[in-house]
Specification:
With 452 residues, the chain is of the alpha+beta class. It folds into 3 domains: 112 residues, Uridine Diphospho-n-acetylenolpyruvylglucosamine Reductase, domain 2 (2-Layer Sandwich), CATH 3.30.43; 119 residues, 2-Layer Sandwich (Uridine Diphospho-n-acetylenolpyruvylglucosamine Reductase, domain 3), CATH 3.30.465.10; 89 residues, Alpha-Beta Plaits, CATH 3.30.70. A 5-stranded antiparallel sheet has the order 5-6-10-8-9. A 4-stranded mixed sheet has the order 1-2-4-3. The chain has a 4-stranded antiparallel sheet with strand order 13-14-12-15, sandwiched between helices. A hairpin with a 5-residue loop joins β8 and β9.
Amino acid sequence: MDSPSSLSQLARVEHLEVDTSDRALHEARADKSGHRSDSAPLAVVYPSTIEAVQTVMRWATEHRVPVVTRGGGSGLAGGAIGSDGEIVLSLERLNRILEISISDRLARVEAGVINADLNAAAQEHGLWFGPDPASRAWSTVGGNIATNAGGLLCAKYGVTREAVLALTVVLADGRVIHPGHRSVKGVTGLDLTQLFIGSEGLLGIIVEATVKLLPTPHTETWTLAARFSDIAAATDACEDITSSGHTPAILELVDNVALGPIHEYLGLEAPEPTEVLLIAQSDSPDAAGDIATFAAVCERHGARTDSHGPGPEAEALLQLRRSMHPAMEQHGTVLIEDVAVPLATRGDVPRGPPYRSRTKRADSHGRPRSRWQPSSELHRSWRDRTRAHLGGRGRTVSCSAGAGWHTHRGARCRAVEKALDSRRARRRPNRAPPGNQVGVRPDEHSQPRQNV
């Protein structure tokens, strides 16, 4: 392909900006994962209409150019990183809230709408959007759907999948499909909407979504901070809480490896070296009673507890949890290996390996850079034991994203990809995208590449 002349065709497309500046290409080579591609993509393109997205995909199909779809660019596994021979398709300008329906309790939005912006708009109508990844202030709704993002509230309200009614999707050849429905009930035919949720851009590019909204709770939320000196006691308390007959809205455990750096990042007093923090929240009609029950459970397991009604103390606890990744980034590249198991079997999961800090050269501000990394031999042993353990049904790696390494679905997923995009079978070898490789957790905010 003659790249400059071919890109000039895109530059003439209405409602599409083609950016080949050094700054744009430099930014597109990395995301928040700490990974950076060895080479720059051909261009970053910014469509502001669905028709422009279709044109880009038709052009990419014609010229056999892989496309990397990018939203907020703050992903944790390199799924939205562009490299040599690819174009990066940024959906940040597809950012309109098209409709908020109070009677149907739904919103229709373009893919680039920021999660927090949708929530703020919904709250003006007495509604709210359930999915709340830690990155909600900058993650996009399209990226949340493409990775089936979780969030602190998924303990009660589920992950993004539970909030999606319908989608508008551009396929690799530029065709548009509209799976889903606006109605509460929609039971006929195959549920293609659920197929695209969590597909990470492999099956098509999500450009618009109809999502459920929930009525704003009319009760006060209460929040619990329980501090343990042993992680086993904390996980036992979690199991007892979920078995107590009450459903927490939030149930988050921060281990001692993360808690110290978080305190340092937020300028808080250092915790005890072995301290483990469990954060629980209830928004039920008897939220104060629920939190009292949770506190009693934690105290039976040796925890020190504090309870808070609505106010800055409760918000500070949630901010502490949301600060985990940026806090760990201060110590270097963060290794994320995300596993999900049924709660009743969590005690059988092999413990992770010891971690150590390796000091690197100083950064541009003269500060030493370090990388948190496991002892390689111990890490390989733990990885092998974990994957062997996850060989049973109902267990996954990369639980915050849909198309990561799964113990028994890989071949089936590839068959679906091929059915929707037959050209995938003829793509160039060794072009497997970083965000879609085995065992890698992709972005909660960006849709990884669509190979054409």
